[in-house]
Amino acid sequence: MFSKSIKNHPALIFILKTVFYFIVILLLIYLYGYYGAGQEPFIYNEF
Fold first, then answer.
1. Helical spans, DSSP H, in 1-47
2. Residue 21 and residue 15: Cα distance in Å, rounded?
3. How confident is the model at residue 15 (pLDDT cuts 50, 70, 90)?
4. So where does this one cross the membrane (predicted)?
């Protein structure tokens, strides 16, 4: 009965989704920096 009321609470669902997507974005930023993407010089910088 308690968990059913939590699952249907819109503010809690919004907060949990926001935290989840924030963690996903941070993970993507971390992986982008970790694998060295963007470290090579851009080909059009010299034009």
1. 2-7, 10-34
2. 10
3. very high
4. 12-35
Structure tokens at 23: 């963690």
In the numeric block, which tokens belong to residue 1?
Answer: 């009965």
38 φ/ψ sector (left φ>0, alpha ψ -120 to 50, else beta): left
What does the alpha-carbon distance between residue 22 and residue 14 come to, in Å, rounded to a whole number? 12
Contact 32, 24 (CB under 8 A): no
Can you give the length of the chain in residues?
47
Q: Identify the band that residue 17 occupies on the pLDDT scale cut at 50, 70 and 90.
A: very high
